[in-house]
Amino acid sequence: MSGNPAVVMRLVASAYSVAEKAGAIVRKVLHSGELGIVEKTGANDLQTLADRLAQKSICASLYRSFPNITIIGEEDLPSEEVQEDLIESGQAEEILQKSCPEDYKALKEEELVVWVDPLDGTKEYTEASRCLHLQDVVQKPLKGLNKTHGTAIWLLDNVTVLIGIAYEGRAIAGVINQPFYNYQLGSGAALGRTMWGMLGLGAFGFELREVPADKRIVTTTRSHSNKTVTDCVNAMEPHEVIRVGGAGNKIIQLIEGKASAYVFASPGCKKWDTCAPEAILHAVGGRLTDMFGNTYCYNADVKHMNSAGVLATLRNHDYYVNRVPPSVQQALKSK
């Protein structure tokens, strides 16, 4: 550990370990088969036991080490004592070893806002659970599964744990855990991976790739589409459209060269969906804005909804902003 790491570096290091703990909780609940599903606002807005336990673990763990930060989580949970076995006190040594960017060295706990989505891709998580038992995920390689199982397996790619850190309204650092990464390798492989990034420092835990310059591949929503979303996607003149769940998953597609742009011209995404992915994307030179090209603010007192949609790219952001149809812009202004 380097000398006396800055507060924000210790927070990111803790968030890394806490996200891994949350990912393990997500896997454990799926394994149990008892998801405890409740509908929040409808069939496409679900909460599971994994959402609840993961958020309790994340918030309680971070508050124990950083009592003066502000944490805003997706789930509206009652205030109650958290079991000790949900607490994670570890910190990622690889992060503590890195030098903090000069702009953030003097930040105090009370200046930092943490946005938490304990289980991004809940709908896909529940659908996968209905289609398979965990032994299919951890004990059988993909080739051993039938078509139904293959679909369920793919859905687990959509699931992430998101912890974003903001300062003065800007997403400056983020951690994304993919609980089921490596499922294709069968029982011999360790499940899960964690990636993180910070402005001025870079992003880690994945291999940065780009879609070939002569191709436009758009990733968009799998389960929250409408005419406005479809019209906007088509206006980008994509060579291919990928429809998947989870905002975190879509940003991973951008930074790993599977998609050129994430286009979602509709309200629906919240700040906890975009804070961590935005920080990682920005750390490698990408951009995340609304459909008008305006950046989102992550102060503690902002509205949670990203009401003007989400447009994210690794490169050529202005091209996509300029192709948003006036009809789509008008529809978003009226929201």
TrEMBL record:
Its cofactor is Mg(2+). Mg(2+) binds at E74, D117, L119, D120, D273. One of its GO terms (molecular function) is metal ion binding. Coiled coil: none annotated. It holds the Pfam family Inositol_P. It catalyses: 1D-myo-inositol 1,3,4-trisphosphate + H2O = 1D-myo-inositol 3,4-bisphosphate + phosphate; adenosine 2',5'-bisphosphate + H2O = AMP + phosphate; adenosine 3',5'-bisphosphate + H2O = AMP + phosphate; 1D-myo-inositol 1,4-bisphosphate + H2O = 1D-myo-inositol 4-phosphate + phosphate. It comes from the Eukaryota. Keywords: Acetylation, Hydrolase, Lithium, Magnesium, Metal-binding, Phosphoprotein. It is an enzyme of class 3 (hydrolase). Its EC number is 3.1.3.57, 3.1.3.7. InterPro entries: CysQ/Inositol_MonoPase (IPR050725), Inositol_monoP_metal-BS (IPR020583), Inositol_monophosphatase-like (IPR000760), Inositol_monophosphatase_CS (IPR020550). GO terms for biological process: phosphatidylinositol phosphate biosynthetic process. Belongs to the inositol monophosphatase superfamily. This is 3'(2'),5'-bisphosphate nucleotidase 1. It comes from Cyprinodon variegatus.
